[in-house]
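User: Earlier you gave me the apo prediction for this protein. Now I'd like the version with S-adenosylmethionine bound, so I can compare the two side by side. Same sequence as before, with the ligand SMILES added.
Assistant: Got it. Here's the input I'm using:
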Amino acid sequence: MSAKRKRGARSTAPATTNRKVRDGVEAAPPSLREDASPYRVGAVGRPPQTADAPGESQQRSAGSPLRFIDLFCGIGGFRIAFERAGCQCVFSCDLDEHAQITYEANFGERPRGDIYSIPDNAIPPHHILCAGFPCQPFSIAGVSKKLSLGRKHGFEDKEQGNLFFKLAELIDHHRPDAFVLENVKHLQRHDHGRTFRIIWETLTDHLKYHVYHRVIDAQGLVPQHRERIFIVGFREARHFEFPEFPAEGPKLESILEAEVPEKYTLTDHLWNYLQAYAAKHKAAGNGFGFGLVTGKNIARTLSARYYKDGSEILIFQGPRKNPRRLTPRECARLMGFPEDFKIPVSDTQAYKRFGNSVVVPVLERIAKAVVDTLQRPVDFRPELALEMNDKENAGAAKRGPVQVSYRKLRAKRKG
Ligand SMILES: C[S@@+](CC[C@H](N)C(=O)[O-])C[C@H]1O[C@@H](n2cnc3c(N)ncnc32)[C@H](O)[C@@H]1O
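And here is the structure of the complex with S-adenosylmethionine:
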């Protein structure tokens, strides 16, 4: 990997030195609203309405939207979130044909295929790089499956683990203002932390980004326990805070359909098999069983293997009836996709795609926080903004409104 641009200092928190101030602004720009009207798929993102602060390499005219690329786009969870945050998608790619079909039906454009077949310079300039990079080499299930098959895993997996290095190569080539990466929570612990350390050092030491990360459970926004790690990086030393999420959220009854076709009810054969399997594992002291829930509960994590037997989320239908799986539409809701999201593929493919996806409203909040951060001055620090507001208020009370510039306040503080 080239080390051509060695700017800024490595940091897990924002650095306070070596900063450029573009504008003295009077106040932090208003946050984009959380209560945006329901998303219409295919709608063009609302342009940001606040101060323009483009990165050096990704200049944009005032009022034009921040551009993002949607790598490993799947069915477009990142796309909905970033469009809702006012950004414009300029490139998408995913290897999977059914993901491409779904994405095209909803966004009117067919994603490109294998990332390795696309030269770095064929990807258009962008401000934000988004990637829910394939997690199989990093997930507990993926690791144990691969180990049991005698395969390598993590970075040694030439087909999937190295996709992270492809990402790093793209970040190095394009130097976007920011990136947002998503993966399974287990990424942090994989290979005794070695995998995550390599990722972290690549992003900070080698690429010189200022990087933040957090594990977020989606259950505050959708009725599903789903923990994912989000890694957000900025080319410049910007202050960033992950949004807060409620600890508790809606229950399954909020996403269940009133009328569900019989084909989603488990056959006697499958239901007997799952019960016997669970009993066997319970006797052996293992906790692996099916997840039988009612509308008053929340679901376990929907996985890409849900199509096989649906065992992780089975809906109780009363004592005289076998439980049922979720329908694909219920899976869409469980992942926070909008009601008009089109599902043009078979149930099996739909389960796989939703199980691989991001929870849209979680990412939407992160996207808005990233956009807000990029629209502030590079050296924005919340404590300075608070101090500025206090002075404004005190001044206004005594002698009418006063103008306190963020830049002056910062200079005074430094001096
Ligand atoms: C975890 S999923 C991401 C899902 C996506 N974030 C969403 O919201 O639907 C990873 C995706 O990477 C895709 N993928 C794997 N290898 C790829 C490659 N070499 N080039 C492009 N896409 C690839 C898979 O098809 C899969 O859809």
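For your comparison, keep in mind: The chain is about 30% helix and 10% strand.
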